[in-house]
Amino acid sequence: MMSEKALQSKRIVLCVTGSIAAYKAVSLLRTLIEEGAEVSVVMTSSATQFVAPLTFEVLSGRPVLQRLFADVHPMPHLKVTEDADLILVAPATANCLAKCALGLADDLLGTLFVAARCPIVMAPAMDGDMWDYPALAAHVRTLRERGVVVLEPEDGPLASGLTGKGRLPAEHMILEAVRARLARQRDWAGQRVLVSAGPTREPIDAVRFITNASSGKMGYAMAEAAAQRGAEVVLVSGPTALPPPPNVTCVPVLTAEEMHQELESRFAWSTVLVMTAAVGDFRPRHPSSAKTKKHEWTGEPLELERTPDILQSLSQKRTHHVLVGFAAESEDLLANGRKKLHQKNLDLLVVNRITGPQSAFGNETNEVILLPRDGTPIQVERLPKRILADRILDTIREQCIGPPASRSQQPHEGIRRIQ
Ligand code: CTP
Asked: How many CB atoms are closer than 10 A to CB 218?
């Protein structure tokens, strides 16, 4: 029996805007069609400077829509969005992102955006300095707040000759985002998710502290993904340089003790705890509230004590909760992971490698092993952290919670497993 293709019969509107990466949209179109999608192509007039509409027309077998008026349909923006399962903008230029964030409807693409009621995925491409421009960052944030999936551009050589972040994400990443967005509408609605993220900071004195290399990116991605999929999310975060994810309540903390208190006070409220934080295991036993002067230092070693193991302690208080831990390991990933999974009585452990150039710490991408309590380990390929977050949420839903439809009939289904 032939297996169903990933995008079988999905109606996708592929919008191509005026970037040199427009040529990559040709291959993307072919792949979408190979995956079973029915694709209509919309091009802005700048996009037609890079690739002729005829190319898309021949490959899609449909007329390419370019203008608000005088195309095949009298009201193309309404006709196209009415039928669409998803709108994919690839490549999305800086101008296009700004226009869509502001809701400007002065051409077909802008109008289509305002009229759309289906999920939207945008794959930006531009020069690195443009992506970093503060106004653009604000537009991207606005779009994400409205539930639009805006992918991060990739690092690498750019058309300008410079190297930086601005390349159109790789085709398989765009496809993964499309598949993911279609599969996950609001399947986490009704869940209350407590996420911890980032490092902790354990003071030595008024200006010095012990911390670790965690950037918080994985935890923020988990919080953002859960909120986008309909969950109520509280993010308890150690110090990071990241903006708060949209539609998430953020609680900033510094020390492991503070993180413990904030998580504990919200634990009863939550249905799922996702413990992504790299909690410091040790803290100075006698921190000074003043700055220790150089000449006051006697050369004595710093005396340390253990911080609370937050996950372990909350796991002892669990009732209906699903508990997910993140292990930072440098060796024997599986064996050490299994030990932690059982010691901390978790439903799922995400095992990260934290050594080498591909370390989980600080990188935009991550490669992990998922260890469900009863199931077999799942090796997940290297993915951007935001996409990985969706994969992890999928696994939690499948292995620890169960399908959304059955939840209303099951008051304590938190740790139920599906067969
Ligand atoms: N964790 C915690 N409190 C701590 C230390 C860790 O809640 N004091 C949580 C982390 O947030 C993570 C999980 O426990 O979800 C595993 O953390 P990890 O640092 O990998 O392991 P540790 O328990 O610290 O054990 P070890 O240092 O021996 O690897």
From this structure: 29
